[in-house]
Write a structure and sequence with these properties.
Elements lengths: L1 H27 L6 E9 L3 E8 L6 E8 L4 E6 L2 E2 L4 E8 L6 E15 L2 E22 L3 E7 L4 E10 L6 E5 L5 E11 L2 E10 L6 E11 L6 E11 L2 E4 L2 E8 L4 E13 L1 E6 L4 E4 L5 E10 L6 E11 L7 E10 L36 E4 L2
Length: about 375
């Protein structure tokens, strides 16, 4: 009798373990990356990595919580509620101000979804590791340009200090962007203590938008020659469009749907042309020089039925650097014959479960190009 009970318990435990493993697997599929090496970083540096998590399922997914196995890494969540195709982030911050040396951490992410009124749970594990140098210190820990007007320059400075060998040197500073330039000045070298001022300048050629880059200080330290420094911020565009996305919804072939956008600038300008790559959009605007323009955008589909995503370019007399773009979305429906009733039955509901979506996003419209000059 006891053997039978033990056998039943073993079967139940095995089933629960299999169910748990299955839960781990479906959560893990949402992460393209599960391991990150911060490398060798300076003490006090702002060292952050974002693990993207994409909802590839038909059901809404909620990122509930995340915990770390080590105080050397603080995890947080960004964009917790994910619909199909949405992307959230598990943000891992290496605590370089309170730790030094080699450290690693396991981040456990808990998620849940609603299965017809039953809340289902699952989790995935991510891993981070790195080496925090105690002999090199950054102050401040990163370069942050909050907001820079497009076409302007901005500067910030970081003090780099080292304690150890008296012959320690920074031999080079490398970066990935041509829009960032640096000046390195040695300020101190005395009894094994070395200090540099690193001036970081964002050039006036930087394009509009957010940037998150990394400079690398190359040293003559044979064991750890490279030390990264984050550079981040936002370049505010000279020309902006509101809204930045036009959603026309369902449009029947042969119909024409108009919408309006506001194009604004920091100084007066003219709209010299609006380009529709597919030719399915018509535009009306003015030829005045003003800091504000209203553009009417009309969608008259000639495509085959299906989803449409198209980038519309707005050219100005300020030059190509200060052009603007907006994105238009629509779904083209087939034209309904006159003798056919226009009432369409609602589609059948999707079955419940964690079935992976078809991942068919909107496709670019195709066809003859069309460029319309301002009228």
């Amino acid at each position: 009798m006891r053997m039978r009970v033990l056998t039943v318990l073993a079967i139940v435990v095995a089933m629960l373990a299999a169910e748990q493993a299955s839960a781990q697997a479906w959560v893990s599929k949402m992460f393209a990356e599960k391991d990150h090496d911060f490398g060798t970083v300076a003490r006090g540096s702002d060292t952050v990595y974002k693990f993207p998590v994409k909802n590839i399922y038909k059901q809404d997914i909620e990122l509930v919580s995340v915990r770390s196995s080590c105080g050397c890494t603080t995890p947080t969540l960004e964009n917790k509620n994910l619909k199909t195709g949405d992307v959230g982030y598990v943000v891992a911050t290496f605590n370089t101000r309170t730790f030094d040396g080699v450290h690693s951490a396991t981040l456990t992410v808990n998620v849940q979804w609603n299965d017809n009124g039953i809340i289902r749970h699952g989790e995935a594990q991510l891993h981070v590791h790195g080496d925090i140098r105690s002999d090199v210190v950054f102050e401040p820990g990163a370069i942050r340009f909050e907001s820079i007007d497009q076409g302007q320059t901005a500067e910030q400075q970081v003090r780099v200090t080292y304690a150890g060998r008296s012959d320690w040197k920074v031999t080079d500073v490398r970066g990935a962007s041509d829009d960032v330039e640096v000046e390195l000045t040695e300020k101190q070298r005395f009894q094994g203590r070395v200090a540099y001022d690193l001036l970081v300048r964002m050039k006036d050629t930087a394009p509009a938008g957010y940037f998150n880059e990394q400079l690398v200080l190359v040293t003559n330290d044979g064991s750890n020659p490279r030390i990264p420094l984050r550079v981040e911020g936002r370049v505010v565009p000279q020309i902006s469009v509101a809204p930045e996305a036009l959603r026309f919804g369902d449009v029947v072939q042969g119909a024409a749907v108009p919408m309006k956008v506001l194009v604004r600038g920091k100084k007066p300008f003219k709209i010299t042309g609006v380009e529709s790559p597919s030719g399915a959009f018509d535009f009306k605007t003015d030829d005045a020089s003003s800091a504000r323009h209203v553009v009417e955008v009309t969608f008259a589909p000639t495509h085959d039925p299906g989803p449409v995503k198209e980038t519309i370019h707005i050219a100005t007399d300020l030059g190509q650097t200060y052009d603007a773009t907006l994105t238009a979305y629509a779904t083209v429906l087939p034209e309904v014959p006159a003798e056919t009733p226009t009432t369409v039955a609602a589609p059948a509901a999707e079955p419940a479960g964690t079935t992976t979506s078809n991942d068919q996003g909107a496709v670019d419209a195709s066809g003859a190009g069309k460029k319309v000059a301002a009228q």
